[in-house]
Amino acid sequence: MKPFGTTLEITQDRHVQTHQTINPQSTFRALADPTRREILLLLRSKDLSIAEVAGNFDMTRAAVKKHLRVLQEGNLISVTPQGRERINHLEPAALKAVSDWVSFFDELWDARLTALSSAIDKEWNSK
Fold first, then answer.
1. How far does the chain reach from its first CA to its final CA, in angstroms?
2. Comparing C-alpha atoms, which of 14, 26, 27 is closest to residue 97?
3. Which residue among 33, 50, 77, 126 sits deepest, i.e. has the most Cβ atoms within 10 Å of its Cβ?
4. Using CB atoms within 10 A of its CB, is residue 16 exposed (0-12), middle (13-18) or buried (19+)?
5. How far apart are CA 54 and CA 52, in angstroms?
6. Sign of the four-CA dihedral 107, 111, 112, 117
7. Mind listing the pLDDT tens digit of every residue in the chain (127 residues)?
8. Largest CA distance in the chain
9. What pTM was estimated for this model as a whole?
10. C-alpha count within 13 angstroms, C-beta hemisphere, residue 105
């Protein structure tokens, strides 16, 4: 399993093509901030301009723009110029890569919890 070794590119027309490597550091950095996670939740239902995103927060438009730039660097959103506005779109492929990476550790915990359960059952049955 190599979700961050997987190569992909989000084209202007939102099709996924393979060639650009996802950087795990920039993706996790983008997800580390609660404001950026809230922005992703807003973008899951529809594409939004910077002004529309900023209208949901008590911060300057410049601060929102910085958050959007970090999300774009993490491949979590794409930005498309539309006239004088820049429209922000959620890119679920990067979230899938993060999910795949985290699920690798779920498998480790499942094995350890199964072993613990077996040890407890063995101990319990020996009494």
1. 42
2. 27
3. 77
4. exposed
5. 5
6. positive
7. 444 555 555 566 665 554 455 667 889 999 999 999 999 999 999 999 999 999 999 999 999 999 999 999 999 999 999 999 999 999 988 888 888 888 877 777 877 788 888 888 888 888 6
8. 75
9. 0.69
10. 4
99: tokens are 């999910």
> Which two tokens mark 117?
């359960």
E strands, 1-127, in order: 7-10, 16-21, 48-49, 77-82, 85-90
Question: Cβ(88)–Cβ(45) under 8 Å?
Answer: no
Of the candidates 18, 8, 27, the residue with the CA atom closest to the CA atom of residue 95: 27
The residue whose two tokens read 């899951």 is: 44
Residue for token pair 């002004």: 51
